[in-house]
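**Fold tokens**
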Amino acid sequence: MKRYIFAILSIALLATVPFRTAADHEIVQADLVIENIRVFTADKADEKVEAIAVKKGKFVYVGDRDGVQAFKGPKTKVLLLDGQLLLPGFIDGHNYAYLKADELFSLDLSEYSTFEQYKKAILSYRAKHPRLKQVRAFGWNQDVTAEASHKSGQTPRKLIDQLVPDIPFIAFSNDRDELWVNSKALEFSVLNKNADRAEEINRTETGEASGIVRGKAMDIVVQALPQPDFTVEQYKKALRAFQKEAAANGITAAFVPFRYNSENLLQAFDELDRENQLTLTYELGLYVDPDKGPEQIEILKKWRETYQGRHYSIQTAKIYSTRNAFEESFAWDEDKFRNVLELLEREGFRIHVQAMGGLDEIFEGFEYIRARKSNFRHTVSHMSFVTREDLAAFRKLRLIPSVKPSALYDTMGVNEEAEALKNLNRMKSYFARGLPVSSSSDYPFGPMNPLYGIETGITRLHPEDGNDLKPLWPKEKATLRQMLRSYTVYAARQIGKEELIGKIQIGKQADFVILDKNLFNIAPSEISEAKVVLTYFKGKEVYRDGAQID
């Protein structure tokens, strides 16, 4: 028997003329009423809520079951539940939604672990697409080509030249910080002949290009391809596919930082918005290129003025920090970094700094522009080690920390002494200092499902690990309420939408998710096993688990 019952209730005696309750809320005939539920409102007040009513995409009632009865009318859809948990739609604070285009329109190498498997996949891909002018791949594992090069004595470039000799070939590494390219790709980009860029190409001892490209040179190679970017239609298809996956995970809003600026991508968002096909609220973060300096801000301003929609907006500029452990060539000169921060602040941009290294220069940069108090507008993400002094700086400069909770158990590649490890992957400390810490998936570089992040933030263990393992720094365990707020109200603050979304509250946009389990009644280690059964965006159903819902 199905656990959920839909019923259309006709109440003949219900007056249809609006009037006001003692709480001074207008009573209207709601489009949707849901009752007999456990509601997490994300509000500080721990009120008892067991029913909601929605009209024209907004909450018009949040309270007990008795009070919601007045909002039912002949056309009201009524959903009667069995005490399941309803909470605000999850907000992903850092999600590369557009990289779904790689999955749909590029060769996926991520499932292969040997060069022989690479060879078969590449040749098969070319056979299926005989008219290609280029081969674009992703998910390349550098260890695979390194091992093949060692065994054969050939560079990665020569290895791929034997498979794709006639058209450009590029493959992005798993974390997208390196490119594997063939000779044709280098020929198109002229990098192999350009002495000014030679230092940015990985070369052998003889000076020969190895076929591994890093840093700023990656963009040069990509931009020289016959098709350097995906088309508007490809991006639209990718975003529609992404939205289905996001809805299945209960995500109704996201911050999407650009790794490269693409007007095709902006046009795709705009066209989908005009066609009423966006089912998330998006805040887009335009990329600030360290090669271009302050003069690029005029272009960013033009795009901000041109591309604004009902369900997407551009108020944020995404910038790398001055020190980048991940790739030095993305880093900014310290003086230019400060100047650009000041200019972005002056032009009214929200600033999202991707740290990937030390925090001192970032704090110094924001201290430099502190005359215009940020009031928790600007964000810093991708920081692993955070000291007590750093926490104080976040508070003093009113900066929002953005965290990837699904990786809080991770110490991979960390070589620091035990004393330094106490500063690794903080979570609870942010809440303890009153910081509106925002949580994210970093999709596709982490699992999109927020429930994985919520569980890991509480347990400090990978969801697939056993409970007998010792968690990393258990003092940094957050509570369930804290983790939920980091994926809702605090993430809404990060993207500048706190007045619109992030809470179950009268007047706010009716974005919400219903789970099959009440997270407050199960062990933290079971949270990732919960399932999203319904997702609503602006009061309209965008996902339904057919196995659970009749």
